[in-house]
Design brief:
The structure holds two protein chains of two kinds. By secondary structure, chain A is mainly α. Chain A has one domain: Arc Repressor Mutant, subunit A, CATH 1.10.10.10. Chain A has six helices and three strands. Chain A has a three-stranded antiparallel sheet. Chain B has a single domain, classed as 3-Layer(aba) Sandwich (Rossmann fold), CATH 3.40.50.300. Chain B has eleven helices and eight strands. The longest helix of chain B is centred in the last third of the chain and has 16 residues. The chains are: A mainly alpha, B alpha/beta.
Amino acid sequence: MAGVFDRLQKEIDNKQKEGGITALDLANLPPALRRIMRLMLRQLQMNYPELCKAIEEMPEDQHLSRPDLDEALKTLSQQAWLIQIGKGEKAVYKVNLRRKAGSNLAGGIWSELDAKLKDNPDA
Amino acid sequence: MGKIISIHSFRGGTGKSNSTANLAALVALQDKRVGIVDTDIQSPGIHVLFGLDAKNMGKTINDFLHGKCEIGEVAYPVGDKAANSPGRSNLAGKKLWLFPSSIHGREIGQILREGYDVNLLNTGLQTLMKEFELDYLFIDTHPGLNEETLLSIAISDMLIIILRPDNQDFQGTAVTVDIARSLDVPKLLLMVNKAVPGYDYNDMKNQIEGAFNAQLAGIMPLNFELANNASKDLFAISTPNHEWSRELKKVADAILSAD
């Protein structure tokens, strides 16, 4: 079974490298999509039935019909903001946040800083 | 499910870390299970309020982000180790954990240089909520708006914005309030710190609540006693009858009474 999980993890890792959403992007999403993403950010990973149940349990004015939910999940997955593993009722969704980029400062600055800090073991 | 409370200020020097540490301690004293995460990776400081320094700090958020440990290993159990100052000694036996960021220059530099996996940070935050069965997780954010601050706001049940009665802070707070609203944060609280004594605090409260359309939970006065404490101890716990402490208690009560 370890082989199956390894393959799934590799698939998730590969998809995560493809992009992802930033927290600032969340602010620009339509309300329904943002609601799903906020839910997923807290839950990390949900299967389709769990998602349907969570949406149903939201306040009435935040409910989504099943076709609207499906459409929203399709949009989020196409953008690689959610990673979808499997299909239909068996689909599992995982949120995909974009990696925080490193500094654009010239490499020499970091080497210089590293060298200075290495001289001080407490740093 | 526990609540995530992010504490933020648009500008530095508002007393954010000091207020966060004291608020978390006040909530833990009500027998709640409380965590504090320092996501101010670039300029960490809240550990000082709990008597930690570079020499006695164990695993950090930086180690977790570099895959060197699990998030649970970062926990510093304040209630088990805190009995070394008048304020912190009151937390003995309380369920309060600090998850500090590294104070080592090399490790801060590594994060700045290489970036990090934001999915991993979020996974860590949600995991420790479950593993430690937290009622409240306080996130001490970096001032201004950056990736970890925006993530903290996006996953929060409540955002507390600290500001000074200063026009620069007012404008910055307006930006943060806009962002919080566009991220659908369910509850927004404001608190004023370093208010000059002698002002009409009721008038200040009305003006700020009117300007930001949000509840102002407390106005903490500028004072020498707190400055003299110099982050050596939890002032609101060691000096509960001080005006600053009484106002901060109002904010803690607002947190505890929120839906």
